[in-house]
Amino acid sequence: MNVEMAGGSEGANQNHMATNGQIDTDLYSRQIGAFGFETMGKLIKMKILISGLRGLGIETAKNLVLAGPNTVTIHDDSLVEMRDLGSNFYLSEEDVGKKSRAQACLMKLAELNTYVSVNIHTGPITPDLLKNFNVCIFSETSRRSLIEYNNFCRSQSPPIGFIAADCFGLAASVFVDFGDQFTCHDKDGEEPKSAIINGITQDNPGSVTLHSERPLPFQDGDYVTFSEVRGMTEVNDLPPQQIKTTGKYTFTFGDTSKFQPYEREGIVTQAKVPVTLKFKSYETCCAKPLADGEEMLMVPDLAKFGRSEQLHFATQACLHYMDKHGRLPPVRDASAVSDCMEIATRLNEEAQKDGDGTVTVEKIDEMVLKAVVSYASCQISPMVAFIGGVVAQEAVKYTGKFGPLRQWLYVDAFECLGKEEATDTASTNSRYDDQIAIFGQVFQQKLANMKIFLVGAGALGCEFLKNFALMGVCCGGKGKLTVTDMDRIEVSNLNRQFLFRKEHVGKPKSKTAAAAAEEMNKELKVESSEVRVGPDTEDTFNDAFWDSLDCTVNALDNIQARLYVDQRCVWYLKPLLESGTLGTKANVQVVLPHMTQSYGDSQDPPEESIPLCTLKHFPHQIEHTIEWSRDAFQGLFQDGPQEVLTFLKDPQAYLAKLSTEGSPALQRERLVKIKTLLTTIKTGATMQACVDRAVKVFQDFFHDQIAQLIHTFPLDHTTSEGQPFWSGPKRPPTPISFDASDDTHLDFVMSCANLFAFNMGVPECRDRNALRDMARNVKVEPFRPKEMKIKTSDTDTTVEGSSDDEMVIQKLSAELSAIDEAFKKSISLNPSEFEKDDDTNFHIDFITACANLRARNYKITEADRHKCKMIAGKIIPAIATTTAMVTGMVSLELFKVVNRAERKIEDFKNAFVNLALPLFLFSEPLPPIKTVDKDHDPIIMGPVKARPYGFTPWDKVHISISNGTLRDLIDYLARHHQVSVMILSVGNACLYNAYLPTHRNRLDKQIVRLWEEISRSTLPPGRTYVAVEASCADSNDQTDVIIPTIKFQFTD
């Protein structure tokens, strides 16, 4: 085996550390959120071969190196061609004709991840080579060779994972074979769901009723386990049981007729049951492509029902052609198209004679076959990015995580082609030749001269910049790509934001990513910015800027920013390409003026919030205790010190204001925090003092508060209906006493004490033994129960607190008022702002220990540090494969935006993809929502008229009146739209209300001056209009009338 390595001894040593289980949680934190530690442990031991390094191969290699396997070996002895630069981002013009593709890519691939050994194999692929790998991936490989390689991979024990993929212009195929007996341990990657049991019948099958806190979280065929059930304890020992759903809160399972009667309590939890999958060989699947149990090939787009079967025959025809001629069909070669039509027709006829597992079509579709064959030797960036993400994720699935493809995936984007076939497709000996061969030179020039706004330069933004550079977008004399991102690069970004390296940490994302994209294509006209996009920066991203754009591409990670950009695109009538990812899931939405709905027209339902009473007193899931611990961190280490600083500025004003804020219990809590912190400082801020306070916090959190709760609601307490109080979601807690020999107890004290030390400027201490000795000497006051009122639910109107709250508040206020002035001036405090990605600052350590101790109180299964970090930090799982895939899909839509005036809505594709399942759903965007007349509107509680009838959010009423007044606007609407104006507003400022007599004095005021007076704001420089919302009534019958937003131009 002829192998060349990259990275030297340092790379090999780092890789050795990784394979010994030292997973870099800083680097892989977002990926671990999607894969989990078990899968990461398997992944870092994997060895992968990738043969074929045009666009598809390099995209796959990039995604896998970022993912972090042990070894990635690349193979492609072909010399670099100029056209390769259109899809392989690691090639340069200097490599053309001088280096093999593999040699040219080696060093840059190795730079992506120093934990991965990246090697080259040169020469033929042999069994001796293949046996060294866990997964082998092939593209641009002959059918005859694929059969040979696949048969060898299947013959090994365990079988070597085999993936074959091709991108033929705007069509693509992926084939997966993991052997006869492959075990999938987790088919969907979702967190197991659990529910609280309300009852189980003694029956065959037994029927389970869940607590009505929320609907059944399971589906037919799921497996579940039982725990903590009282009475019918036999179910607690059962292996995973398959269920059948029977109602909103009920399901059945097994035979419970001979079990003891159910009494109370119990948790039912979804179980991940391993599934054994049987794969067929590549040779078999070429003739009989249906997997066992499947009735048809996967249908990614229901508008193209039957297309996968057509693509199968067209792709197989190309591969048969390759076997015969030694190469793929030449571009736009009529003779090759004819030959392939004969081959495809013959293959279809043979399939019609065969039996099970075959697919057939009534007739080979000439359009599909021609589109596949004509561009079979072309690889374009959007398609290879899409498929490269899919292929890399399939390789990761060899770990047993997620459901692999069964076994073929076929997709196409033929709708990208124009109505008329391009004729200006001759080679220009440029990096764009493959793209020009499909779309033509005129189209390429249109791409080059586009003006695009890319909002975000993180994971999505890096991939978009790469795609645009390869596609030639904004690379012409009139082209311009503006990219903005206010964030700086962090270590955790490096796992998926592939334009960044370790030396870039701390630098601006937008500037660094733009520079990297320019290296890929010197012709790229890119301008970077660190300005946030929002209402406060409309002087930067002003009317002239938005008016100049051809398209906006969002690469954002928060809904608020997405909505703002969407609103701007609607206002300026600009196309918007929206996308997002969540672990293995991704979505694409195409927003087109007057053609589709906007992003803001439909939103996901809000996330479920945890009821406050559940957090404070009655947690029953680890998520509840983690959220409680995050709040505890905020209160102790950020709000507490900040509260003291606010108090010290003006104690009397603070105390006066406090008396008007919140309940007495909350006032008491705030004063206690101030007094405790000031006392600690006054008596001597030392590490021992910090440990004293940490142990006392432990006593309060995990013993006294719990003991008080049990005192208020004893274990035998019943509700007003006579039912046990401690049942269902209310789990009876048990107090915990501090034990310095318990590691979790010490973790809490160590992190808590060091955070207090940071607040007070005390040097940290990481010596566990020293801290343990300090903690053992701390004396805590014995618990004394109080008479307290505690809410039992969020609908409970009880005012929480103790009977002595008022007395204690008075005492504390008096003590704090008497603080010495000199002492106040000597105090210096450092509030701790929560930072999830610094593993040395004790923040996540505190939350982990705190959450798990509270979980012990309530007998909830504890969580590892990473899970606590993900939940407390609200970290969104993210992986390179999904990111690359979704940006490929978006970039395909950009092709269509170029000539959107000639297109219909059905040419565009929204998408939802879940690579874990895998699931691909492409659909036509929805048309814009129309406002129409209604006989009864539920908000207005009466009839309404739309004027004009059927207007959409894209429509505006344009009114231009120089120095126009309110009266001018009202009169205009009365004359031209036959409406009487009731209310006029601009943003949050109400300019006119017809029901308020005093507003008549405003009628002759200029609208813009009135707005400035009311809002105390000024318009961005150069803006000559305001957006006015009007509430109107029909001038004749006074029926309420809805009209579009008014664009009121007040100066020429």
UniProtKB/TrEMBL annotation:
Domain Ubiquitin-activating enzyme E1 C-terminal: 908-1046
Assigned EC number: 6.2.1.45
A molecular function (GO) term: ATP binding
Catalytic reaction equation(s): ATP + ubiquitin + [E1 ubiquitin-activating enzyme]-L-cysteine = AMP + diphosphate + S-ubiquitinyl-[E1 ubiquitin-activating enzyme]-L-cysteine
Keywords: ATP-binding, Ligase, Nucleotide-binding, Ubl conjugation pathway
Functional pathway: Protein modification; protein ubiquitination
Active site: residue positions: C613
InterPro entries assigned: E1_4HB (IPR032420), E1_FCCH (IPR032418), E1_FCCH_sf (IPR042302), ThiF/MoeB/HesA (IPR045886), ThiF_NAD_FAD-bd (IPR000594), Ub-activating_enz_E1_C (IPR018965), Ub-E1_IAD_1 (IPR042449), UBA_E1_C_sf (IPR038252)
Gene3D superfamilies hit by this protein: NAD(P)-binding Rossmann-like Domain, Ubiquitin-activating enzyme E1, FCCH domain, Ubiquitin-activating enzyme E1, inactive adenylation domain, subdomain 1, Ubiquitin-activating enzyme E1, inactive adenylation domain, subdomain 2, Ubiquitin-activating enzyme E1, SCCH domain, Ubiquitin-activating enzyme E1, UFD domain
Gene Ontology BP, a term: protein sumoylation
Matching SMART domains: UBA_e1_C
GO cellular component: cytoplasm; SUMO activating enzyme complex
Keyword Cell membrane among record annotations: no
Pfam families linked to this entry: E1_4HB, E1_FCCH, E1_UFD, ThiF, UBA_E1_SCCH
Domain of life, source organism: Eukaryota
Family the UniProt entry places it in: Belongs to the ubiquitin-activating E1 family.
Entries under PANTHER family matching the protein: UBIQUITIN-ACTIVATING ENZYME E1, UBIQUITIN-ACTIVATING ENZYME E1 C-TERMINAL DOMAIN-CONTAINING PROTEIN
Protein name, UniProt field: E1 ubiquitin-activating enzyme
